[in-house]
Structures are given as C-alpha cells and as structure tokens.
Design a protein that fits this description.
Elements lengths: L2 H7 L11 H8 L7 H10 L2 H16 L7 H19 L1 H4 L2 H18 L2 E5 L5 E4 L1 H12 L5 E4 L15 H14 L1
Antiparallel strand pairs: 1-2, 1-3
Helix pairs in contact: 2-4, 3-7, 4-5, 5-7
Length: 182
C-alpha cells in the first residue's frame, strides 16, 4: 500500500486530517499490508497527545463489547490500551515513531487478522472462528437484535505485550482519570 493509498484508507488528505476515532478504526480494522515507513512518517507528523486521545477513545468504544464474563480479555485490552496510548503521549521520552509503528502494527495484525475467537451460535450450536475484531462486531450486532453467540477467547489471549514503563505524569493522569470516573 502506498502512502496515498494509506491516506485514502484512513480517509485523510494530510496528517492534520487524522483527528477522528473513525480514522483509528479504519487503521486498526484494515487487513491490507501497510508500508511501515509510511506509517512511521504519518505518526511523526501527528500531535501525540491528540493521537493518544483518539486511540484511547477507540479502545474505550470497542471494549464496551467484550463479553462481561471475559475479564481476562478486558484486562489484556486495558494493558494494551495503556501501553499504546502511553507510548504515543511520550514519543520523545519513550520511543521513536518506528517503535510506536511496530507496536501499532503488531496490535492491528493480532486484532484484525491473527487472533482466533471461537463463536458458537446459541440457537444452532454451529461454531466458527473469527479474529477479535469480527467477534466484537458480532457482539455489537447481538446487542442490536442479531444472533446470540457463546464466545471463547482462549486462543486469542496470546498477545506479546511489550513492557512499557509509565512515567510519573502517566500515573498522575491515570489517578486523575480514575477520580473523575468515581
């Protein structure tokens, strides 16, 4: 995928146009191969705090559809969310855009392609597998009156989470956010 095709896929003309949660969704939910250099260059031109907020909002939205019984999945997504948004916010301190692009690409591939969730139709007991992205989509449809499924995320839990050391500022922000939610 060329830079132009990437921008078209993300529905942007310039990096300044990357300002909606839909842009993040179009990136994470894309199955096409993305040129690593183009992604790193795009990341280098984004306002890191604004981008971190968009990625955080995306995670908040998709995590609503993790089945309630799947607390381990929810915990894994929480850790991935903190890691990715923390890296974005602290790009100068923590990593280069290439490292962030590597982490984003690893998540995107796992989330949209490589993970395997088993869904069993509650009425017919037919089973099929799907990546996490599609399983969460089915859960969304379920809430809108679609088919109901049993979800087995066991095989999807193998995600190699890079260790990210939170800065003092990250911890203060997290504490503030938790106080606001309480």
């Amino acid at each position: 995928m060329t830079k132009e095709e990437l921008y078209e896929r993300l529905d942007i003309e310039t990096p300044e146009d990357f300002k909606y949660v839909e842009n993040v969704a179009q990136y994470f939910e894309c199955e096409d191969e993305i040129d690593f250099g183009d992604l790193a260059r795009l990341l280098s031109e984004l306002d890191k705090d604004e981008a971190a907020g968009l990625f955080d909002d995306y995670f908040e939205e998709i995590m609503e559809f993790i089945p309630e019984a799947e607390t381990e999945v929810y915990g894994l997504f929480t850790n991935i969310r903190r890691s990715l948004t923390g890296m974005l916010k602290n790009a100068d301190e923590v990593s280069t855009e290439a490292k962030i692009a590597e982490e984003l690409e690893r998540f995107r591939h796992w989330y949209s392609q490589d993970s395997k969730v088993y869904l069993t139709d509650q009425s017919s007991m037919e089973e099929f597998d799907a990546p996490i992205r599609d399983a969460l989509c089915e859960k969304r449809l379920e809430k809108l009156g679609g088919k109901k499924y049993f979800y087995d995320f066991t095989e999807a839990m193998d995600y190699p989470l890079e260790e990210y050391v939170m800065t003092f500022g990250d911890m203060m922000k997290l504490a503030e956010d938790n106080e606001e939610e309480a």
